[in-house]
Amino acid sequence: MDSFETACQLLSSPLRRRIEAFGQRQPEEIRLRLLRPPALVINGRELELPGDRLSENELNQVLERATGASLHAAMPGIISGYISYKGLRIGLCGSGIMNQGQLAGFRDFSSLAIRLPRECQGICDGFIDRLTQPGLENTLIVSPPGLGKTTLLRELIRVLSDRGTRVAVLDERNELSASTGGKQHFDLGRCSDVLVGVPKGKGVGMLLRGMNPQVIAMDEISAGEDKQVIERIIGCGVSILASAHGRERHDMLRRPMYRDLFEMGAFSNVLTISRDGETRRYSLERLE
């Protein structure tokens, strides 16, 4: 999947030309802010493009294309802070609409962050054998936003699957597989089965009952119900491969949900991603 090309499908022709004129360096994100010049995130640094500021019409055009001209149909995702589009996650900001104390929608959109996923085959070569000997135990990938948790999770799924492990992928936001029409545009290996767009609480039951997985993989555990999902998987003879936001394990112990999971021994391995200049570092910690 060429995520940059997919993202450019959402842009007006003048805006696309401005971004392409910036050069061939692969951005990690395209940042669009009302009445500010567009910007690209490259190696963690945000670089503003020269030229005109973004108009309200240009911003709304991206939203219209990303939602198939139906903001109303996309509102459940928008309320969660993002839109899914062909494997892209588009974060957004604007003015919330409240109804009886609950967030009911958004209007007056002011910012969009188009994250550009990619495949990075080989990034787990340095530790995959340590991680899987004698077999994969429950593993959590940890890093701050934007350092490649989903990219690493996607590559681990591919490697495990191509080695013959049945991996059931719970792809709630369609970022791991970028599925359209039943076809996965990211390579998740030969023994993967992908469930797209289903909440974790519902999806885990479906996969355990129907797909006989050896590993269940899921992205970004963060809510209380995610803890219940993991508790359900534990004891079923199925390994967990998941990711979460955080700097490292000790940092996460200050947050009740993760502290409870570590104290109950939910994870045997923690894979931490950090950045050293333009290089990402992967650290594997085995827990007793």
Kindly summarize this structure in a few lines:
The protein has 288 residues and is α/β, with parallel strands linked by helices. It contains 10 helices and 15 strands.
Compile the SSE list and pairings:
Blueprint: H1 3-8, H2 13-21, E1 29-33, E2 39-42, E3 45-48, H3 56-66, H4 71-79, E4 82-85, E5 88-99, E6 102-115, H5 128-132, E7 139-143, H6 149-162, E8 167-171, E9 179-180, E10 183-184, E11 192-196, H7 200-210, E12 215-218, H8 224-233, E13 239-245, H9 249-252, H10 256-263, E14 269-276, E15 279-286
Parallel strand pairs: 7-13, 7-14, 8-11, 8-12, 12-13
Antiparallel strand pairs: 1-2, 1-6, 2-3, 4-5, 5-6, 9-10, 14-15
Describe this structure in words.
The chain has two domains: 3-115, Beta-Lactamase; 128-286, P-loop containing nucleotide triphosphate hydrolases (Rossmann fold, 3-Layer(aba) Sandwich), CATH 3.40.50. It contains ten helices and 15 strands. The protein has helices spanning 3-8, 13-21, 56-66, 71-79, 128-132, 149-162, 200-210, 224-233, 249-252, 256-263, and strands spanning 29-33, 39-42, 45-48, 82-85, 88-99, 102-115, 139-143, 167-171, 179-180, 183-184, 192-196, 215-218, 239-245, 269-276, 279-286. The relative contact order is 0.12. The model has no long low-confidence stretch (mean pLDDT 91).
